[in-house]
């Protein structure tokens, strides 16, 4: 399987997860607010510290985003493109944002596909620099006793989300992250096995080092931005088996979608997940 060399020491623990009790969320984002402020308000009103939010539709202007890119700085194995700001309002086709805390305040990490005047584009939305132009309703999964906390990561030199327990205990779902060079599908299965989850819905965003789809399509870009559009875990022969259907954008702006090959899709920098246990 492909490997990417990051500048720092390789962490021994290749994934992490904490349990939480999921709170279904649905709230309105009001015009004039930045996306991060609108989502932070929705989560705070529900008493939730972190989780995931899903976007579909809505109008945003200005809208700013970046795509994956090579790094000119040897301290990083990959980086981001210039900032893009499409002209006119932008509609989100589908996107998801991991919601957590950075520098003591709410923070969003968002990947998705959007419809611009120039056509479909995809990447990493800059939520503090993107504004709600028309009221939009979003859904999500929040957690009161757990969240994602942005922390310096010595392996990659990035500041990355880590799942953390805030207070008390929870059950019914996991907040998780996977480190570089781990196959994302196998990592989801290992996390579920470790926590006794036999059937689940899987949500999340992250980056992969190249992508291999079950239909034979290959994306050679070593840095990508990924959104899980449909993910599941079920029990096969007594063990959890995951199926992940994703959207991905490469360093040239190419957008691809499909089901991942199990065992041949390694994480590039990080992958953040919310795994909801469901009845078998």
Automatic annotation (TrEMBL):
SUPFAM superfamilies per the UniProt record, alphabetical: AF0104/ALDC/Ptd012-like (SSF117856)
Pfam families on file: PCC
Keyword Ribosomal protein assigned: no
Swiss-Prot/TrEMBL keywords: DNA-binding
PROSITE patterns reported for this sequence: PPC
Domain PPC span(s) in chain numbering: 19-164, 167-280
InterPro entries, sorted: PPC_dom (IPR005175)
Record keyword DNA-binding present: yes
Gene Ontology terms for molecular function: DNA binding
Ranges in coiled-coil conformation: none
Protein's name according to its UniProt entry: Putative DNA-binding protein with PD1-like motif
Native organism: Microvirga subterranea
């Amino acid at each position: 399987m492909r490997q990417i060399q990051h500048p720092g020491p390789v962490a021994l623990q290749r994934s992490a997860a904490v349990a939480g009790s999921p709170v279904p969320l649905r709230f309105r984002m009001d015009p004039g607010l930045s996306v991060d402020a609108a989502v932070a308000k929705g989560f705070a009103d529900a008493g939730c510290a972190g989780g995931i939010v899903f976007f579909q539709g809505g109008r945003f202007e200005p809208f700013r985003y970046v795509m994956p890119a090579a790094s000119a700085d040897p301290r990083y194995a990959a980086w981001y493109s210039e900032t893009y700001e499409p002209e006119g309002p932008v509609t989100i086709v589908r996107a998801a944002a991991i919601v957590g805390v950075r520098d003591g305040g709410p923070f969003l990490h968002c990947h998705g596909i959007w419809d611009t005047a120039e056509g479909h584009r995809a990447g990493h939305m800059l939520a503090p620099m993107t504004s709600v132009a028309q009221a939009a309703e979003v859904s999500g999964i929040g957690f009161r006793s757990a969240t994602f906390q942005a922390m310096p990561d010595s392996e990659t030199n990035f500041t990355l989300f880590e799942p953390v327990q805030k207070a008390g205990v929870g059950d019914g779902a996991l907040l998780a992250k996977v480190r570089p060079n781990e196959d994302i599908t196998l990592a989801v299965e290992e996390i579920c096995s470790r926590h006794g989850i036999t059937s689940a819905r899987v949500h999340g965003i992250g980056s992969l080092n190249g992508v291999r789809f079950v239909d034979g399509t290959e994306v050679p870009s070593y840095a990508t931005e990924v959104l899980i559009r449909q993910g599941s875990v079920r029990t096969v022969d007594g063990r959890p088996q995951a199926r992940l259907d994703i959207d991905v954008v490469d360093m040239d702006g190419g957008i691809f979608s499909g089901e991942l090959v199990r065992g041949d899709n390694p994480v590039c920098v990080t992958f953040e997940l919310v795994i909801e246990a469901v009845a078998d």
